[in-house]
Design a protein that fits this description.
Helix content is 32%, strand content 26%. It has 508 residues and is an alpha/beta fold. It has 3 domains: 189 residues, Rossmann fold, CATH 3.40.50; 187 residues, HUPs (Rossmann fold, 3-Layer(aba) Sandwich), CATH 3.40.50.620; 96 residues, GMP Synthetase, Chain A, domain 3 (2-Layer Sandwich), CATH 3.30.300.10. A 9-stranded mixed sheet has the order 2-1-3-4-9-8-7-5-6, with helices on both faces. Strands 12-11-10-13-14 form a 5-stranded parallel sheet. Strands 15, 16, 17 and 18 form a 4-stranded mixed sheet that branches. A hairpin with a 4-residue loop joins β7 and β8. α6 crosses α7, α9 runs antiparallel to α10 and α15 runs antiparallel to α16. The longest helix is centred in the middle third of the chain and has 21 residues. It is globular and about 75 Å long. The site of xanthosine-5'-monophosphate has 16 residues, from loops.
Length: 508
């Protein structure tokens, strides 16, 4: 199978580029600039895409050896990558006032890369440096409204640079540009990337890794990643796949039952451990969310290890690690840790299992496609992401069981209303959080103080950035009415209208 290499110059968009390429049928992987030359020489490499990044080529930002651009495959440079092409191939780059956000570009030349584009299109830009002079032999294809070079192409049509970001949704014709680029690459139909078609290969890999008597334990949580992991392992080794479901008491309403029901329908036996009392007792009164994450992480390892120890000959642990978790995201080194997120840490080494990570090549959307192909019901395939520490991160201030139940019931109402109105799938996450603030209400004729619940509904592509969803007022109205009538301890419902950044998605 031929693939594209996305050279990761540290922009948060490198993963988005790889996702877009895969979506239009060209399998793509990220490589670090230092590895680019060697990787690009591999005969299965069909294209190179140079990502954007926070550095400046004028200040010694990461480069590429000239030979990497001479390997003969089509190349697309994006933003920083576009500037790097100019600098490496004999053009010039200068610093300017920059262009940020939606920017109109005008096509000067009709080119296959812009098939289906009008002469004038909206793109999304984020740059200070700009290409002042294209390399010798390059033609300018498009200019921005400020007159900067928005796109250029080598005379032989093999190397392209674009100043804008075609990978973000704010460039409406961006996906089309990637489709056009894949045509330039010349992919044969049988080479088109199809994640669901990988299932037989993954199953074979698991079969050949796991010994004939050995068992594999899988920590399942109801999320798509762990569910699909469990399904793949079960398909490979049948009953020697043992999913373990630890109920920490912090799930969405009805979720533990749904998880067990899903596996029952799929004919897979789950080892269920209800440890909710243990978790809730340890969390009670803890105000600091990071401390709660640590408590939950530690307890989870303990409970899981105890359950796994009861599985005879369990030599393997399968985890739903995804591609973005494997590849260093290109976050600025030494950057502040905002939250100690993302998967309960330290499970594998501590427990001494061999590790299986059948999804480590895939993005979330691809895991959904695989899940669908394996027969998972739509509710599971399209269930919103849910943090490992569950509702514990939706209770602000001291953790109490009362507030936990408020967050749980209110979140359920938010999800229900969106589902009923057909809005659920269109948003990234939707929930309610609660803290200690009280609002005065009237019950009958009497004054009655109650909780303030904050409803958060966000749209996002990867949780790195997010925007609040502009749901119609009637939807907010229905949510507010239902929450205040069905949860008597709540008298005020507020809607969170701040994007990420500056705020995060979860309240803590
Ligand atoms: P934030 O709140 O940082 O969240 O904007 C980004 C995404 O991560 C999820 N999240 C977590 N996931 N453990 C997880 O596994 C955590 O501790 C955690 N905290 C936040 C959040 O739901 C969102 O999708």
């Amino acid at each position: 199978m031929r693939r594209a290499l996305v050279v990761n110059f540290g922009g948060q968009y490198a993963h988005l580029i790889a996702r877009r390429l895969r979506e239009v049928g060209l399998y793509a992987e990220l490589v670090a600039p230092e590895e680019a030359l060697e990787s690009a020489r591999s005969p299965d490499v069909a294209a190179l895409v140079l990502s954007g990044g926070p550095s400046s080529v004028l200040e010694g930002g990461p480069g590429l050896p000239r030979e990497a651009l001479d390997v003969g495959v089509p190349i697309l440079g994006i933003c920083y990558g576009h500037q790097l092409l100019a600098q490496t191939l004999g053009g010039s780059v200068e610093r300017g006032p920059g262009e940020y956000g939606r920017t109109s570009v005008r096509l000067l030349v009709r080119d296959p890369l812009f098939d289906g584009w009008s002469d004038e299109e909206t793109t999304w830009m984020s740059h200070g440096d700009y290409v002042a002079r294209p390399p010798p032999g390059f033609e300018v294809l498009a200019v921005s409204e400020r007159g900067y070079i928005a796109a250029m192409r080598s005379r032989d049509g093999r190397i392209y640079g674009v100043q804008f970001h075609p990978e973000v949704s704010h460039t409406p014709k961006g996906r089309l540009l990637f489709e056009n680029f894949v045509k330039v690459v010349g992919l044969r139909p049988e080479e088109r990337w199809d994640p669901a078609a990988q299932v037989p290969r993954i199953v074979e890999e698991i079969k050949s890794a796991v010994g004939p008597e050995e068992r594999v334990v899988i920590g399942v949580s109801g999320g798509i990643d762990s569910t699909v992991t469990a399904l793949l392992v079960a398909r490979a080794i049948g009953e020697r796949a043992v999913p373990i479901f630890v109920n920490h008491g912090l799930f969405r309403e009805g979720e533990p039952e749904e998880v067990l029901e899903t596996f029952r329908r799929l004919g897979i036996a789950v080892k269920y451990v209800d440890a909710s009392e243990e978790f809730l007792r340890s969390l009670e009164g803890v105000a600091d969310c990071e401390e709660r994450r640590r408590i939950i992480g530690r307890l989870f390892v303990d409970v899981f290890a105890r359950a796994a120890a009861e599985v005879p000959n369990a030599k393997w642990l399968a985890q739903g690690t995804l591609y973005p978790d494997v590849i260093e995201s290109g976050a600025v080194k030494g950057a502040d840790k905002i939250k100690s997120h993302h998967n309960v840490g330290g499970l594998p080494e501590k427990l001494g299992f061999n590790l299986l990570e059948p999804l480590k090549q895939f993005y979330k959307d691809e895991v959904r496609a695989i899940g669908k192909a394996l027969g998972l019901p739509d509710e599971v395939v399209h269930r919103h992401p849910f943090p490992g520490p569950g509702l514990a991160v939706r209770v602000m201030g001291k953790f109490t069981r009362e507030k936990l139940e408020v967050a749980r019931k209110a979140s359920k109402i938010v999800e229900d209303v969106l589902k009923r109105r057909g809005l659920y799938r269109g948003v990234w996450q939707a929930f309610a959080a609660v803290g200690d603030d009280k609002w005065v209400g009237v019950k009958g004729d009497a004054r009655a103080e109650g909780y303030v619940v904050i409803v958060r509904i966000v749209e996002s592509e990867d949780a790195m950035t997010a925007d609040y969803s502009r749901v119609p007022y009637e939807v907010l109205d229905e949510i507010s009415r239902r929450i205040t009538s069905e949860i008597p301890s709540v008298v005020m419902v507020a809607y969170a209208v701040t994007s990420k950044p500056p705020s995060t998605i979860e309240p803590c």
